């Protein structure tokens, strides 16, 4: 459930309290973001820093989250996939990176999408070691939120009033994995990944689950076990997904849930890139799948 508002003066707010306030604020915003999606399916007029054209819905969600998170005592920096530069709130404290509406291209076909939250105890761009919490909201048939903090993953349902309730504690990837979701196109996959993908797809226990929104696809892996991959493509040698906004937080959540993450060679948490909007290949899932992937890429 949402916490009591802490009345401690801002200058003495602990990181733990700030993380709780960030999660509370994201949960409170979620129903309003969801309610604001209809009527915002049109493209905005300018591209984002990754060269993608956002929807009005992306801009709407980013504006709301920037206002609410940027106003929190203990949040010193706010960055978003939709903004070129980091916003310094002047308050000092933790840094928050937001993908306001991951998979917003799913709005028109009314499929899932999500909000990704990465919290770092360092100025941006941060490293994987700086991460202190990560979360995602999933706008599906219901609105749920998965939070990794203090060494554990918890899944919540978010009610219409923004209050949230635990539905799964100590979430861990199932030992009998059954789903895989691979982004990009088979002809664009580099050869190593194409061979690996063929091996996974030939496993009769594995089913394809790919919805085009990373958070929806990762939540399938968090629920049923398996692997999600957005690999290096012939025309995307660095991959498509962003390190600070997608790779680190999803890697942190899956590893906290007992799985593994990789960029093909190392844990996503060990990837180091100077650019706030740098990209990386993303592979997350059960340990055996990621170990096999790295072995395939080594040979
Ligand atoms: P494709 C959504 O745009 C996103 O950033 C991720 O959520 C998703 O995994 C990927 O891109 C989908 O990419 O090439 O399948 O449309």
UniProtKB/TrEMBL annotation:
Keywords: Carbohydrate metabolism, Cytoplasm, Hydrolase, Magnesium, Metal-binding. Residues 43-164 form the Fructose-1-6-bisphosphatase class I N-terminal domain. It catalyses: beta-D-fructose 1,6-bisphosphate + H2O = beta-D-fructose 6-phosphate + phosphate. It comes from the Archaea. Residues 173-296 form the Fructose-1-6-bisphosphatase class 1 C-terminal domain. Its cofactor is Mg(2+). Pathway: Carbohydrate biosynthesis. Homotetramer. This is Fructose-1,6-bisphosphatase class 1. It comes from Halogeometricum luteum.
């Amino acid at each position: 459930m949402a916490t009591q508002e802490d009345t401690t003066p801002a200058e003495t707010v602990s990181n733990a309290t700030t993380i709780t306030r960030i999660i509370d604020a994201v949960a409170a915003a979620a129903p309003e973001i969801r309610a604001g999606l209809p009527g915002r399916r049109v493209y905005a007029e300018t591209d984002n820093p990754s060269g993608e054209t956002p929807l009005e819905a992306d801009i709407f969600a980013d504006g709301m989250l920037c206002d609410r998170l940027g106003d929190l005592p203990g949040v010193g920096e706010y960055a978003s996939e939709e903004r070129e530069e980091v916003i310094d709130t002047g308050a000092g404290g933790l840094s928050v990176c937001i993908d306001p509406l991951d998979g917003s291209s799913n709005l028109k076909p009314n499929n899932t999408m999500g909000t990704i939250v990465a919290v770092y105890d360092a100025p941006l761009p941060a490293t994987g070691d700086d991460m202190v919490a990560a979360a995602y909201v999933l706008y599906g048939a219901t609105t749920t939120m998965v939070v990794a903090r203090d060494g554990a993953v918890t899944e919540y349902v978010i009610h219409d009033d923004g209050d949230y309730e635990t539905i799964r504690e100590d979430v861990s990837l199932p030992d009998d994995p059954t789903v895989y979701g691979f982004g990009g196109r088979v002809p664009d996959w580099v050869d190593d990944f194409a061979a690996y993908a063929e091996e996974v797809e030939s496993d009769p226990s594995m089913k394809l689950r790919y919805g085009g929104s990373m958070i929806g696809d990762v939540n399938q892996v968090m629920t049923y076990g398996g692997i999600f991959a957005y690999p290096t493509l012939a025309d995307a040698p660095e991959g498509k997904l962003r390190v600070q906004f997608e790779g680190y937080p999803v890697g942190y959540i899956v590893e906290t849930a007992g799985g593994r993450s990789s960029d093909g060679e190392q844990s996503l948490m060990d990837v180091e890139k100077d650019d706030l909007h740098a990209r990386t290949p993303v592979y997350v899932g059960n340990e055996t799948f990621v170990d096999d992937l790295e072995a395939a890429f080594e040979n």
